[in-house]
Design a protein that fits this description.
Elements (H helix, E strand, L loop, with lengths): L1 H4 E4 L6 E6 L4 H14 L5 E5 L2 E7 L3 H4 L17 H9 L1 H12 E10 L2 E11 L3 H13 L5 E4 L2 E4 L2 H11 L4
Helix pairs in contact: 4-5, 5-6
Length: 175
């Protein structure tokens, strides 16, 4: 979720992690909260806004846990995983994909008209301006055996039935 909707603010005192969340998905908010605590932070707070919630946590070790932090937008700077992060993503590609798709992706019904008939099928879409983050998503999809294709330089689609079934199992319901 950090790579999509999160950012790290380096204040003069203690670094602050903030992950923007949609209030329509309290389960996702709870998962982010649990993940922040599992990383070692002692407390998690919320900054409620009219359009959402920011899960926030101050902790001295956030820069070590999230070495991708930096000034500017994520798509304007290199995003690479450190060796220990790569090992975690390789061991748990499904959870990594879940975070990516819950922040910058969706499951939708695609409708196409062929010879006057309308066909509808589910598909997953992932959009991110960072070529590095897109590459990480592609690698994780390859690792779980899901075929994908690029719709544009910033958008990826998983539309084959077998890939959607795998992602349904990996993602679970977004609640």
């Amino acid at each position: 979720m950090y790579l999509g909707d999160g950012h790290l603010l380096l204040t003069r005192r203690v670094p602050l992690l903030a992950v923007a969340c949609d209030l329509r998905y309290p389960g996702v908010v709870a998962e982010i909260e649990a993940a922040v605590l599992a990383c070692g932070a002692r407390r998690v707070g919320h900054q409620r806004r009219e359009d959402g919630d920011a899960v926030r946590s101050s902790w001295m070790h956030w820069p070590c846990r999230l070495p991708q932090h930096g000034t500017g937008k994520k798509h304007d700077r290199p995003i690479t995983l450190s060796a220990w992060q790569r090992a975690v993503v390789d061991a748990f590609p499904g959870q990594f994909l879940r975070g990516l798709f819950h922040s910058d992706g969706c499951r939708t019904e695609n409708k196409v008209r062929v010879a006057g008939k309308v066909y509808a099928y589910p598909r997953y879409m992932f959009t991110n301006k960072s070529a590095d983050i897109m590459g990480l998503c592609q690698e994780a999809l390859d690792r779980v055996g899901v075929r994908w294709r690029m719709c544009s330089p910033i958008q990826l689609s998983v539309a084959r039935r077998e890939g959607v079934v795998v992602l349904d199992g990996v993602m679970g319901a977004k609640f």
